[in-house]
Write a structure and sequence with these properties.
The structure holds three protein chains of three kinds. By secondary structure, chain A is an alpha/beta fold. Chain A has helices at residues 42-47, 89-95, 115-118, 132-144, 167-173, 223-233, 275-279; strands at 4-6, 18-27, 32-39, 55-60, 64-69, 80-85, 102-109, 122-128, 152-158, 180-185, 195-196, 213-218, 241-244, 260-261, 264-265, 272-274. Chain A folds into two domains: 10-109, Elongation Factor Tu (Ef-tu), domain 3, CATH 2.40.30.10; 115-279, Rossmann fold (3-Layer(aba) Sandwich). Chain A contains seven helices and 16 strands. The model of chain C has no long low-confidence stretch (mean pLDDT 91). Classes of the chains: A alpha/beta, B alpha+beta, C alpha/beta.
Chain lengths: 285, 340, 249
């Protein structure tokens, strides 16, 4: 009897991160940075494809892993963007990294927004705070495929003007007529000329054709109930309202148990669910 | 499947033979209790054991295992190989054999876990019949029998074992290390009688009707707060559970900080930080944690694999100082009252 | 630049510093990562004026300790409390059960006692006086755990002490439960992280790592009583290491 050592090829070890290089870091706010990452291995980079709403496990050896949703659009290949708040050990360590440094990536994981099904319809996107991160991927994807969609409305609420993410791009978009974008803040400063108050207040200003509109929501847990109520007031269908949940996805492949939401796992059944599914999930909303 | 009758006195020969090819792990005494441990001599084997402190899962999914060794400087994996010892698990009761099948659904289904798989592929399972103890309730879930998931299954008939042989490897080792004999009609009759007395010996009477419905319909029932008040949140139930598969992963640096290991350890949904995220904790209170454990086992897992994630081995019944176990929780769900 | 580290002791038996010196396999690696400016147990010089990390052992028992800690806090970016005395008040904390003025009389002589003992205080853990950034509990500390915490300090990661109790570790060790042998064991409510070492060496847990933040004391008391212990037995046993913490609330 002897101990055998079995080598595990990268392709069969779902826990082994692929090395990725940080190719750009943009400071978005004092708390959030936008990282552009490129997988170093050509084969892995070419094989990497994802849907808006999916997430990756970002790995920094010595510190650990954290699930982060992808902010760039699937239509842009060869790199991904992650909008990351400095809030824990892994995200803190990532914030201390420099351009050119190497981190690890696993994924993409989970079920994203049903982009193909959404095509041909109006889209209403509602984001609160950092919830814009996964929706940004969807917004950019729609942008790259704009003629396939009807009216596109984006409602985005932040606590203060300085916490608005992707501010530069959204400021430019305020003047576009192919996207209806309304920003609101809870606490305005002296420079703020836009809307104030909760994102739900903005529903008075928009027209929704319930027969042809898909909704997508992402934000802090407390937000969902109220935004969904507004969408339902506009008579939108329960199975056309999509929500993305933050849970503690750790393995990403339905084994470690950490992201359980009701009887499902956010990492393989979500993190994007439609409202009908979410209503049937305990602990969801 | 084919069958042999193996006299009990030949078991030491079988164990000694297996030890040429495998590490043989079986039930041995530890104080008043039993544990699965590598045997140094067949005489240590206690096939009269009732249950073990820890289940067999540790031989496939250890309480702590290194997933990979890494180098910090360039964030690179330097080794993710897995050490595999060819091994026999000797003497698993039907509940434990069934528990491995439930674990297989998680670890060998989509995105198979290479560490678990390597050990599973290199382990022979020898099952063993048993008699129910006062903490057993495998009959409630139908896990008192097993028809696959083993290489050899030994059912006690008097001075012999009625051996069901399921795999080629199982047949090989039986041929190689024991004499045994062909099965007769009388042997099969004895096997049937033995099965009947086994089934008749169960004292448990758990009403498992409609558990998924009850778990949702009674989601806000006061029983959960009551059970939460009793629970120590110690996670003993999860550790000793042959089907609890949740784990945590963390990095450990070596003293010079240049290299380290990524380590996986058993985790439990009873622990406070289990469902914690940046925005808060989805199961801060004990009641929510106790409820989730049962919700997942009797409904979450079932919704995916059409089986409950419990085999009625009774280890949690023995380990929980607060006496929270499936029979009591299921009774509380059925009646709306937590018995004292 | 390597962080400048000082190691100092308040009221304790220096056992935790001895544990540090026992890290024979790792100490050279560790010394390569830090600039050890002062180690009370091993240095003959004085505390430097400037340092980055202060590793403090012992309970706070005098006004001098308070002044020292305030200056440490003002100087060090990071304060690490090591050992039971520094983290829970430990065994010195038992003095909180006594009338201290009366004890001073017994020890130092009637009438004169309180004067001799001027500046003495009821023993307390470090965080009753200053903010503590990292905790290494236990009596004595476990060197591997100390190294894990030091590693987190060097990486700038957050303090992380397990808030669960000991029982899961015992299950993993396949230790037969002391309650099943008719003995009281404080692992039921004590902070995990030592691997349940004492129970694995056939001694019930004495609670040196402090009460786990997620412990269910009410349930544990009921279990202690149900197992045949008198009422109050669990709390009495917890006093050895947890009196100061209890007194503080």
């Amino acid at each position: 009897m002897s101990v055998q050592k079995q080598g595990l090829a990268t392709a069969v070890n779902p826990y082994r991160p692929h090395p990725a290089r940080i190719t750009s870091i943009i400071d978005l706010t004092p708390m959030e940075k936008l990282f552009e990452l490129r997988l170093i291995d050509d084969e892995a980079r070419e094989a990497f494809s994802f849907e808006s709403g999916q997430f990756v496990e970002l790995s920094i050896f010595g510190v650990g892993e954290a699930p982060i949703s992808i902010s760039s659009a699937p239509s842009k290949q060869g790199f991904i963007e992650l909008c990351v708040r400095n809030s824990g050990d892994v995200t803190g360590a990532l914030h201390r990294k420099q351009c050119g440094d190497i981190v690890g990536l696993r994924g993409p994981f989970g079920r994203g927004f049903p982009f193909a099904e959404m095509k041909g319809h109006d889209i209403l996107l509602v984001a609160g705070g950092l919830g814009i991160a996964p929706l940004k991927s969807l917004i950019n994807h729609i942008h790259d495929d704009r003629h396939d969609f009807g009216k596109v409305t984006i409602l985005y609420g932040s606590r203060t003007p300085s916490e608005i993410l992707f501010r530069q791009q959204f400021d430019m978009w305020q003047h576009r007529d192919d996207f209806d974008l309304i920003l609101t803040v809870d606490k305005p400063d002296e420079t703020w000329t836009g809307e104030t108050g909760l994102v739900t207040k903005l529903f008075d200003q928009i027209d929704v054709d319930p027969a042809s509109t898909y909704g997508a929501i992402c934000g802090p847990p407390v937000m969902y109930k109220y935004v969904i109520a507004e969408m339902r007031k506009k008579a939108m269908d329960v199975d056309r309202i999509y929500v993305s949940f933050e849970r503690r996805m750790k393995c990403g492949i339905g084994k470690c148990g950490h992201c359980g939401v009701g009887h499902q796992y956010a990492c393989i059944d979500g993190p994007v669910f439609n409202f009908w599914e979410a209503m049937n999930l305990q602990e969801a909303i | 499947m084919f069958f042999r009758v193996i006299p009990k006195r030949e078991i030491p020969d079988l164990v000694r033979g297996l030890a040429h090819e495998f590490e043989v792990v079986g039930p041995v005494a530890k104080g008043e209790s039993f544990v699965f441990a590598p045997l140094t001599d067949p005489s240590e084997l206690r096939l009269d054991y009732d249950t073990t402190l820890l289940p067999a899962k540790q031989w496939f999914f250890p309480a702590s295992e290194t997933l990979m060794r890494f180098r910090v400087a360039d964030n690179a994996v330097v080794d993710d190989s897995v050490d595999v010892t060819p091994r026999v698990l000797f003497g698993l009761h039907p509940c434990d054999v069934n528990s491995l099948l439930l674990m297989d659904n998680v670890f060998l289904g989509d995105d198979p876990d290479p560490y678990y798989k390597a050990r599973r592929d290199n382990t022979l399972i020898v099952g063993l019949s048993c008699m129910p103890t006062d903490t057993c309730f495998c009959d409630a879930w139908g896990t008192d029998e097993t028809h696959w998931g083993f290489d050899i299954f030994l059912s006690e008939i008097g001075d012999d074992y009625y051996a069901s042989i399921r795999s080629v490897k199982g047949a090989e080792v039986v041929d190689r290390y024991v004499t045994g004999r062909e099965v007769t009609e009388e042997d099969t009759a004895a096997f049937q009688a033995r099965t009947a007395s086994f089934k008749a010996a169960f004292a448990s009477d758990i009403d498992t009707s409609q558990l998924p419905v009850l778990l949702d319909a009674k989601y806000d029932s006061g029983i959960w707060a009551e059970l939460g008040d009793l629970c120590l949140s110690c996670g003993a139930c999860s550790m000793v559970c042959p089907t609890c598969h949740c784990f945590d992963v963390h990095d450990e640096l070596e003293a010079d900080q240049t290299h380290g290991t990524r380590v996986r350890t058993w985790d439990s949904c009873m622990f406070r930080d289990f469902a914690e995220v940046a925005h808060g904790n989805f199961r801060e209170v004990r009641a929510a944690r106790v409820r989730y454990r049962y919700y997942h086992k009797q409904w979450g897992y079932l919704s995916r694999f059409e089986r409950v994630l419990c085999v009625g081995c009774g280890r949690c019944t023995r380990a929980c100082k607060a006496h929270i176990d499936p029979p009591r929780v299921v009774r509380a769900l059925q009646t709306g009252v937590v018995d004292r | 630049m390597a962080p400048r580290v000082v190691v100092l002791s308040l009221a304790s038996d220096f056992g935790c510093q001895v544990q540090l010196s026992n890290m024979t396999d790792e100490i050279l690696d560790v010394l390569g990562l830090i600039d050890l400016s002062y180690w009370q147990l091993a240095s003959s010089g004085h505390m430097p004026d400037a340092y980055d990390v202060a590793i403090v052992e012992g309970a706070v028992t005098t006004d001098e300790h308070v002044a020292l800690l305030e200056s440490v806090r003002a100087t060090a970016g990071v304060v690490i409390a090591i050992g039971a005395c520094a983290n829970t008040g430990g065994i010195p904390g038992l003095a909180n059960l006594l009338d201290l003025d009366e004890r001073y009389g017994v020890v130092y002589g009637d009438g004169d006692g309180p004067r001799v003992a001027a500046g003495r205080r009821a023993p307390m853990p470090l965080d009753s006086v200053i903010a503590v950034d990292y905790h290494v509990p236990g009596c004595p500390i476990d060197p591997p755990e100390f190294l894990r915490v030091l590693s987190r300090v060097l990486l700038g990661l957050k303090n992380r002490v397990p808030d669960l109790t000991m029982c899961a570790s015992c299950k993993i060790n396949e230790t037969v439960c002391f309650f099943d042998r008719g003995e009281l064991c404080l692992g039921l409510v004590t902070r995990a992280g030592c691997g349940a070492r004492c129970p694995s060496l056939n001694r019930p847990c004495t609670g040196c790592r402090g009460i786990a933040p997620d412990a269910n004391l009410v349930a544990a008391r009921a279990i202690s009583i149900a197992s045949g212990r008198p009422e109050g037995a669990l709390d009495d046993a917890l006093r050895i290491y947890n009196t100061a913490k209890e007194v503080r609330g």
